[in-house]
Specification:
With about 400 residues, the chain is α/β, with parallel strands linked by helices. The protein has helices spanning about 15-25, 65-70, 125-135, 150-160, 180-185, 185-190, 285-300, 365-375, 380-385, 395-400; strands at about 5-10, 30-35, 75, 80-85, 85-90, 95, 100, 105-110, 120, 140-145, 165-170, 195-200, 205, 210-215, 220, 225, 230, 250, 265, 270-275, 280, 310-315, 320-325, 335, 345-350, 355-360. The protein contains ten helices and 26 strands. It binds flavin-adenine dinucleotide.
């Protein structure tokens, strides 16, 4: 694209949107730049919402940016509603564009039958500040879903002195993300934090303060926090020609192009074919939204670039930090390094002799080394990898021979 006198529009004011804007300017793009952002806040970071904000350590997570230098036409509180033929429809009127970056992220899934005023979700800074105010000592907090967000919310509520119950429909925490035997390793952590974790319990409905469980029992709650997952916020793209998959993810190629010329997409709303893992990846973690924009910006500006990351994330769960790198869905074997009952351990997933993912608690070095071994597709010696006293780097077959 001619870098002059053009207009690029970015939809979504999260980390993916801001990084796309920064990458465009850093690459020398000096045309017009418009940010269409549904929230009325300047772009802010979400990971601290369930950590520092809920713990009362901060009330602002605004991302640093020199807006004057970036020279952006900021349309805050403005939602994209449709797109066709180089025109973005918004609730503030149409905007024409030469290039478009979709960075509209994801929105929480609502719990059916739970429309009471005390039922909350956690996605935005406004959600976080509302929840923080509800977390007063002695308050009865019910968290629905023992996933990444549910566990973080429960941790903060317990730290504030609330009576916390976590309801999980599956039979292990984190069961939507990890094999049950690994999720179960986090079960004792709930009791340590004074949280009542109930597994295999489905919510039948919520009426006022009453949370009705499928088995007939009821709980009383001052506040119910629903953390059962998110969906791409892409309904506005229906009929735009941008291909969405069955989950609503924007399908992008290795250069983050969508099916519509001149339109790219980044972050939580995307799915792509990973050359590294030979499978499609839909990653809803911060690192992906941070790194993809550089490639998306290059693509918009006509420079050849490909995105083939080793995904990674972290989560603060019940007093521990969990770190993950890779993609275990392609694995055929799981190796535990250490004892899952101990304070620190890691789990490695392999596909044949190839390491494809590692999850670690208190073993940061395993994560750092795994990232390199996964990215370089180094073959590993499975026996050595099972030994927690052998470093991941030393468990590579090359290292064993040397
Ligand atoms: C509470 C919480 C804690 C988290 N903790 C971690 C963590 O510990 N580690 C980790 O790796 N990840 C974590 N994440 C995930 C991480 O924050 C996301 O992966 C990241 O924010 C994705 O960035 P994004 O820019 O793709 O989307 P978002 O951050 O969702 O930003 C998208 C923006 O687009 C806006 N938008 C949506 N539709 C439209 C529209 N039609 N028009 C205009 N604007 C629109 C939305 O309002 C939103 O502001 C956490 C997320 C949450 C909510």
């Amino acid at each position: 694209m001619d870098a002059k006198r053009k207009r690029i529009v970015v939809v979504g004011g999260g980390i993916g949107g801001l990084e796309t804007i920064s990458a465009l300017r850093a690459s020398g793009y000096d045309g017009a730049l418009t940010l269409v952002a549904a929230e009325s806040h300047l772009p802010y970071d979400r990971p601290p919402l369930s950590k520092e904000v809920l713990l009362g350590k901060t009330i602002s997570t605004t991302l640093e940016a020199d807006w004057a230098e970036l020279d952006v036409d900021l349309r805050l509180g403005c939602s994209a509603t449709g797109m066709a033929n180089g025109l973005l429809e918004t609730d503030g009127g149409p905007i024409d564009f030469d290039g478009l970056a979709i960075a509209c992220g994801a929105a929480p899934i609502a719990l059916p039958g739970a429309a009471s005023a005390n039922v909350r979700v956690l996605r935005t800074i406004d959600d976080a500040l509302t929840l923080r105010a509800a977390f007063s000592a002695g308050a009865r907090i019910v968290v629905v879903g023992a996933g990444w967000i549910g566990a973080e919310v429960a941790t903060a509520a317990a730290a504030a002195g609330c009576h916390v119950t976590v309801l999980e429909a599956l039979d292990a925490p984190l069961a939507g993300a990890l094999p049950p035997e690994i999720g179960r390793a986090t079960e004792p952590w709930y009791a340590e934090c004074g949280i009542d974790l109930r597994l295999g319990v489905a919510v039948a409905g919520i009426d006022g303060e009453e949370v009705r469980l499928a088995g007939g029992e009821s709980l009383q709650a001052d506040c119910v926090v629903v953390g059962i997952g998110v969906r791409p916020a892409t309904a506005w793209l229906a009929g735009s020609g941008v291909t969405l998959d069955e989950r609503g993810c924007v399908v992008v190629d290795a250069s983050l192009r969508t099916s519509v010329p001149g339109v790219v997409a980044v972050g939580d709303c995307t799915v792509w074919e990973s050359a590294l893992f030979e499978t499609s990846l839909h990653v809803q973690h911060w690192d992906n939204a941070l790194r993809a924009p550089e490639v998306a910006a290059a693509t918009l500006l006509g420079t050849e670039a490909t995105y083939d990351p080793v995904p990674s994330f972290w989560s603060d769960q019940l007093g521990r930090m969990l770190q993950y790198v890779g993609d275990h869905t392609v694995a055929d074997r799981l190796l535990v390094r250490g004892d899952l009952a101990d304070a620190s351990w890691s789990v490695c997933w392999t596909q044949g002799a190839r390491l494809v993912a590692t999850l670690a608690v208190g073993r940061h070095r395993d994560i750092v080394q795994s990232r390199r071994v996964i990215a370089q597709r180094l073959p590993v010696d499975l026996d050595r990898l099972s030994d927690p006293d052998v470093s991941v780097a030393d468990a590579t077959a090359a290292s064993a021979q040397g």
